[in-house]
Specification:
The chain has about 425 residues and is mainly alpha-helical. It folds into two domains: about 230 residues, Vanadium-containing Chloroperoxidase, domain 2; about 140 residues, Up-down Bundle (Vanadium-containing Chloroperoxidase, domain 1), CATH 1.20.144.10. It has 13 helices and three strands. Helix 2 packs antiparallel against helix 3 and helix 9 packs across helix 13. The N terminus is likely disordered.
Length: about 425
Amino acid sequence: MRNRRAWSATRTVVAGLACGVLALALPGSHASAGAGRPAGAGSGAGQGERDASTVIEWMRTAGATIRAEAHPAPPESLIWDAYVSTAVYNAVVGIEGRYTPYKWDGRAPRTASSAAAAASAAHRVLRHHFPGAAPRLDTALTGTLAEIPDGAAEDEGVAFGKRAADHVIELRRDDGRGASVPFPARPRPGVWRPTPPGHEPFASAWIGRVRPLLLDSPHQFRPGPPPSPRSARYARDLHELAAYGGRTGSHRTPEQTDTARYFAVLDLQGALGDHATRHGFGIAETARLYAAANTAQADAVITAWDAKLHYGTWRPVTAIREADTDGNPATRADRRWEPLLVTPAHPDYLSGHATMGGALMRMLTGVLGTSRVDLYIRSTSTGTSRHYRYAHEYERDVVDARVWGGIHTRTADEVGDATGRRLAAWALRTYFRPVP
């Protein structure tokens, strides 16, 4: 099913990530298995693991529904995933306890079914945003509830799940999703303009102005400006891209080319569910894993797009082809240069993939209490899977991948990764914390 062969990296990284600002027991461990659980909620680890499968199944249903109904670009999908997973998280911890709810203080009877609440919450959020999918969603909910004993516990869980969903729906009302956001900068050396082959306008620019899920504003963690086109660092970035990021004549190894293609689109939701299953997470730990990972990535995308709108730097394909206009004597124009991957239709700085990668790994190390993330991640672009044992391995590869793909400067990747880690570390001090 999955290729569990560990990826053999070609580069050595000295520094790893810190385990986090919180000293947390590993979810699913003996130390954390019963902490904070209300009396009567669940019936032991086996029941908790069975209930956890409801969260995993409904996050899978969410992904399929979002793809079919919204046809979103990958960054947009993460925002939808965050809506669903926060509603599910609130529905579960409002019954189970264990962790602080997300921007809510709702509580349910201790006897309510957490699995019914999780399914009901996901169903209601998806049905609200995608009414065309109602028949399929209704059928899925009926199937889930058929596996839960009829009675007061199921009814209480369904009712509470609807309340949790309605709260998130109201939280996200008029949050700027899908708004028209122009990119007014006029093309000049260093400034973004539509890129070949499609020469499409700035894609999903609204992401940079949407209200974050965790942060106070889209620009809360906006980094400083990118290197000037006249700087030595800028020239180094361009030289590396010209040498390693081109479609033809590149110095890339076959393994580096595989890495560039692998990171185009990843099934991170599936990786989270697989991790929870293999590690025997209960329903509360599983819901927390999804909600923490998805909100961190959503806010990372928002932060990256804010920087793209603010700084508006041109992409490598433009920078290399027009290097004779940048005022830097150390760069050289190549009018025929093409990147390995098709350049996405938005500016270079920051890299969305790298910002999301830093935020995801920093959030996971805080939630799991260890830098050993143990993720089997499938690439939907290549159909292959890789096993990432440690957070820094994933971050290293996502930074390299965007350079080797010819679509981002190393600076845009490295600053993005650091920015993502900073915002997730900040969020961990407030959200998804264990209840004493």
